[in-house]
Amino acid sequence: MDRIAAVERALRSAAPDLLLDVVTAALREQYDVQSVELRLADYGVTTLQVVAEVPLVEPVPIHDSPQGRAFGAQEPYVEPRVGDGPVTVHLPVTVRGDRMGVLTVTTSDDRTRADLREMQGVCEALGHEILVAERDTDLYLLARRATRLTLAAEMQWQLLPGRSVTRPEFSLGAHLEPAYAIFGDNFDWSVSAHHLTLTVTNGMGKGMEAALLTNLVVNALRNARRAGLDLPGQASLADQAVYAQYRGALHASVLLLRFDLATGEVEVVDAGSPRMWRLRGRGVESVAFDAQLPLGMFEETVYVSEHLRVEPGDRLLVSSDGVYESASAAGEHYGERALARSLSAHRFLPSAQVPLAVLRDLKEYRGGATPLDDDALVVCLDWYGRQASTGDTQA
């Protein structure tokens, strides 16, 4: 543990663009490694991109590579050793459940389990410092892009809190497509000691128009939440902000959810098109709410909340209309039957991997090569409950 603490101190004092240099030097000194390579998942979560000022190394696919095996399993992966050659170890870089990438090290001999645990601790410290460093350098953001982002997509990704998060009470994962040209779809979450607030937004329009609208909505909702307003109050403030700006010409559909971490009680405001499905046991059902007006359609709309309860073991999936209204060649919407089949088929995947799996199924459902004609957003939440995770026996 002293070795990890030494690396953490070195990382905190390092220049933002030199974090990998510091980790490399520390691992060479403390663990006698020969080489170190850091790769970050691209925005589409299809490849792992090398972090370097001039990236000369080709990306590797997530779904067919040793690095991808560590990324997917979220466990260190030691490649089979060839003769007396070096030992190659791939270590996931993850912060609070947000899967960022993989650190690869080579050594001259096998590593003990204790060494692997310690090096995994170094990876976690590196991930934390990368999140802080991104305020001051573009190095890590540039490494994530396999191709150029549109300006609208750049704005949307900068709004997001992350791609996944894990707490004892729940785990949550989300993804957007087309990753490099997303328009108006967005998700946001905030966790306190007692609550998880989750919002899923579907902004009207295309391109920059949709991105600007969604930026206004997300920041208005954050402003209202941080001012201490309840869920209907958050919707009302955001509604007023959008109407004041666009006078009803543009509006945004939002589903707002507030989970009580101790009880599983969920407060809901349904202001538009994002919809929710629940997997409980082996059964999948659509969860319907009382639909209210989208934000910004009319002046001073009053919103009311309704309630449901989630149970330990429940999986919730929320999608935008670009998912459930997407049609097959035969004209059937994905949300009619295929989405439930996809959710059931992937019930053993962790929540962080479910959105991508559902979107891959959607692509096949549409005919493989057929491009999406709308943004597609999927959020997956696995609920464990505080009783199951902490031993709290109160209801």
Short description:
With 395 residues, the protein is an alpha+beta fold.
Labels describing this entry:
single chain, 395 residues
What features would you describe in this structure?
There is one protein chain. The protein is of the alpha+beta class and 395 residues long. Helix content is 34%, strand content 27%. Strands 3-2-1-6-5-4 form a 6-stranded antiparallel β-sheet, with helices on both faces. Helix 10 crosses helix 11 (354-365). The longest helix has 21 residues, at 113-133. The radius of gyration is 22 Å and the shape is globular. Residues 388-395 have low confidence and may be disordered. InterPro entries: Bact_Sigma-Reg, PPM-type-like_dom_sf, PPM-type_phosphatase-like_dom. It holds the Pfam family SpoIIE. This is PP2C family protein-serine/threonine phosphatase. GO terms for molecular function: protein serine/threonine phosphatase activity.
- Average pLDDT works out at 93
Poorly predicted ranges: 388-395
Largest sheet: 6 strands, antiparallel
Q: How many helices?
A: 12
Please state roughly what percent of the residues sit in beta strands, choosing from under 5%, 5-15%, 15-25%, 25-35%, 35-45% or over 45%.
25-35%
The outline comes out as: globular
- Please trace the helix and strand order, writing H or E for each element: HHEEEHEEEHHHEEEEHHEEEEEEHHHEH
Strand order of the largest sheet: 3-2-1-6-5-4
> Count the strands?
17
Q: What is the helix content?
A: 25-40%
Radius of gyration equals 22 Å
Termini separation: 38 Å
* Class based on secondary structure composition and strand pairing: alpha+beta
Enzyme class: hydrolase
Protein name: PP2C family protein-serine/threonine phosphatase
Keywords: Hydrolase
EC number: 3.1.3.16
